[in-house]
Amino acid sequence: MVSRGFFRKLTAYLLLVMLAQSCANVADASDSNNIRTSCWATATLSENVVAVARDEHRWSCSGANQEFSIDAERVLLRFDIPPVQAPVRYLLSRRSAFDALHLLAIDEDGAVRQTSFPAVALRSSMAGGYFKADLPDVTLATRQVIAAVDLPTHKMTLENAYLSPVDSGASAADLRFLLLIAGLAGMLVMPLIFNAAFYRALREPFVLWHSVLTTSLLMTIVVTSGLSVALFDPPAMTLSWMTTLLFGVTISSGAMFTYSFIEPGMMHPLLRRILPYCAAWAVFLSVFHATFPFVARPVQSVVYTAAFGPILAAFVCAMVDSLLRGSRAARFQAIGYAPLALVGLVRLVTGVSPWLHSADAMVLFYFGCMFEVLLTTLGVAERFVTIRRERDRVRNEADLLERLSETDPLTGLLNRRAIERQFEQLREVGFTALAVIDLDHFKAINDGYGHSTGDEVLKAVAVALKAGSNVRAYRLGGEEFILLLRGQDVDAQAEFRRQAIPATVADAVPGLAGPVTASMGITAISSVDAFTTVYERADKHLYEAKSAGRNRTRSELGPTHSSVTAQIDQVMIA
């Protein structure tokens, strides 16, 4: 109960912090020092940027909620700078693929300063998911800044563009948020350690897919936040295509995790078969979009986003079906995936709706990553315990069945199958002799007293031959028994057990006309002997004992020692 309460408090705390930061980001976006787009225009790549900028009839000025289009080859954004505005230094906007960026600073007297950047040369901003570009010299006389984007592939680059005197993400509040993101990333490392331990004990594929999913989410957090800039500072376009690829890997590994994690029989077979195709489709979409972002440039981002719709639908159907079937694993996944599914829905709706500004819901995404990994890790742990318990039960049942198959049901001694399986192992641990014991005239007991009395005799013989640490007893079949022996005076140990048979049987089965005796043949076991070879030698000595008049022993081990010097468990024999 304590751990659950702590987890709920931690989740609530992180949610509140991230929501507060989201509000802070909105406030930052409206900061008086930041300047948003006031007008926009379109042009071809062959047109002169300065000429288009000076042509007032080309500009569309519809305020803060203006609708942008990326149908044209070049889109120009105009930022009007008030006379009292402090000089701005950077253009910042969301990362997405485009060809080049041209920046103009136009002064009050018409003077123009221009600079251009190929997209691959743009630097990343400390603000997660943004690039930054140095403006031409902006002075107190500057009244307009023009940004011309060549071959834009996503409206977010136009919608989120703004001018700033500093690199966003460098304030104290932003650094605190970055520390929170770093802590979140550190939390995602722990499930990977747990998964390594889980997979070592239980080699299930869902543990590997959960590790891939966790790793992709961890890398996505690093790439889409300021951590990547603070640690590595890669080019903005490098982070752009990495984000696209990681998104595909995340969706793919999530689908495969669901495919392998939901218990057998707890998902409709058709839905389970669809999930690997969804995984392959997600990887294909991301690789294609990252590699060829300009193939169908005006609509490619919309089509790319919409193409994930069937994957989201298949996942929702799989979760609902599994929940209705009573899957415990699906409960963890449904709760854990809920924030990320909401992020996907927000991106899908805003990405394909022309009247909505595109939103990536990054704060909710960061929270969703933490929530998903923690919940699915708990689910993996719970599933691990369930599978381990089930495997132990099956293994115990198999061991029990194996023991039953190697145990004589009448006497409780091991049978021939057991001695054949164990012989080499017992030979290796020092068992040096094998004795074959056969009851004398046992058929007369069955014929004269009945088979039930004969069974009681066999049970009494098993008691007389009861095994110890240095003696193993087996019933080979009928009235024939085998002893495996080790230690000193193995022949004497065997002989004491043979001689204990008449008294033990007489005590257990009263009313017999005479004593029940036994004959025995005993032989040594060499380090290379097989069971059949040793058994044949001992059986030959048993035949010699029978031929010599029964109730005696024939051995190749030499004369037996007295009972005084033999180290035998006489209590067990008695």
Short account of what is shown:
With 574 residues, this protein is an alpha+beta fold. The protein has helices at 2-29, 49-54, 155-159, 172-187, 189-201, 205-224, 227-231, 236-261, 269-291, 297-306, 309-324, 328-352, 362-405, 416-428, 442-449, 451-464, 490-508, 531-547, 570-573, and strands at residues 35-36, 39-43, 74-80, 90-94, 100-107, 112-118, 123-124, 130-134, 142-150, 162-164, 433-439, 471-477, 480-485, 518-524, 553-555.
Topology diagram in text:
Blueprint: H1 2-29, E1 35-36, E2 39-43, H2 49-54, E3 74-80, E4 90-94, E5 100-107, E6 112-118, E7 123-124, E8 130-134, E9 142-150, H3 155-159, E10 162-164, H4 172-187, H5 189-201, H6 205-224, H7 227-231, H8 236-261, H9 269-291, H10 297-306, H11 309-324, H12 328-352, H13 362-405, H14 416-428, E11 433-439, H15 442-449, H16 451-464, E12 471-477, E13 480-485, H17 490-508, E14 518-524, H18 531-547, E15 553-555, H19 570-573
Parallel strand pairs: 14-15
Antiparallel strand pairs: 1-10, 2-3, 3-9, 4-8, 4-10, 5-6, 5-9, 7-8, 11-13, 11-14, 12-13
Helix pairs in contact: 1-13, 5-6, 5-13, 6-8, 6-13, 8-9, 9-11, 10-12, 11-12, 12-13, 15-16, 16-17
GO molecular function: diguanylate cyclase activity
Signal peptide: 1-29
InterPro entries: 7TMR_DISM_rcpt_extracell_dom1, Diguanylate_Cyclase, GGDEF_dom, Nucleotide_cyclase, Rev_trsase/Diguanyl_cyclase
Query: What is the overall number of helices?
Result: 19
From the spread of the alpha carbons, the general shape counts as rod-shaped
CATH class bucket of the largest domain: Mainly Alpha
| Class derived from helix and strand content | alpha+beta
Q: What is the number of domains?
A: 3
What value does the average pLDDT take? Answer: 83
Taking strands numbered 1, 2, ... along the chain, how are they ordered across the largest sheet?
1-10-4-8-7
Largest pleated sheet:
5 strands, antiparallel
| Cα separation of the termini | 57 Å
CATH architecture of the largest domain: Up-down Bundle
| Unreliable parts | 12-30, 560-574
Number of strands: 15
Radius of gyration over all CA atoms, rounded: 42 Å
Sheet-strand content, in percent, reads: 5-15%
Q: What is CATH's topology name of the largest domain?
A: Rhopdopsin 7-helix transmembrane proteins
Q: What level of helicity do the residues show?
A: 40-55%
